[in-house]
Amino acid sequence: MNYHSASDRELLESCCLYEDLKAYNELVARYSPKLYAVCKYYLNDTFLAEEIALDVLFWLWKKRQQLEIPVNVSAYLHRAARNAVISHLRKQSQNIVSTIEKYAEDDVIEQQMADYAIICREGEDQYKQLLAELSPQRKEVFVLSREGGFSYKEIAQKTNLSINTIENYISSALKHFRKGILPIIILLLSLFA
């Protein structure tokens, strides 16, 4: 067979039926510039147009055994290239939408984290204010217990107070904190609701 003078249909039949690599190479030589032009028209990206055009021709080789040989090979390949471009654009638009959704979710999470940081600072300021409102002795007992990690017995020894007094001081300090911190807790819970 003279590959240069053979028709497109003859080349495709030889390629599909006899796995003739020379016939396939001739089809590639004939159609890669034409398919590239079709893809370039839709994409306006030379590298991507060339890649899709060659992918269409490679697809032709991969599917050669299942392929029903069309009457008009040129129209068939042009349609395949156009469909490949449309498929690529569809995937690209889905990627853009998912990226936008991801960034929108990230923005929401980032905003929540910023809100959380602000609320934590406010909570810390509120804690310091409530701690300052305690009497000096109650404040000392509370700080030794909650921040120092000392037991009631150890605090009683350090402060020369009875364990019952220590328990009463801690209990009243906790009631004081619950009243003052409640708005911050409600604000924190609303952030994650």
Radius of gyration: 38 Å
Point out poorly predicted stretches: none
Sheet with most strands: none
Please report the number of helical segments: 7
What is the 3D shape?
Answer: rod-shaped
- Arithmetic mean of pLDDT: 80
Number of separate strands? 0
| Structural class based on helices, strands and sheet pairing | mainly alpha
What is the percent of helical residues? over 70%
N→C terminal distance: 75 Å
| Percent of residues in β-strands | under 5%
Helix and strand sequence:
HHHHHHH
Tell me about this structure:
With 193 residues, the protein is an all-alpha fold. Helix content is 83%, strand content 0%. The chain is built from seven helices and no strands. It has helices at residues 8-18, 21-43, 46-62, 73-133, 136-147, 152-159, 163-191. It starts with 7 loop residues before the first helix and ends with a helix. The model has no long low-confidence stretch (mean pLDDT 80).
What topology does this entry show?
Elements: H1 8-18, H2 21-43, H3 46-62, H4 73-133, H5 136-147, H6 152-159, H7 163-191
Helix pairs in contact: 1-2, 2-3, 2-4, 3-4, 4-7, 5-7, 6-7
Give a concise summary.
With 193 residues, the chain is mostly helical. It has seven helices and no strands.
Key phrases:
0% strand; 83% helix; rod-shaped; 193 residues; 7 helices; mainly alpha
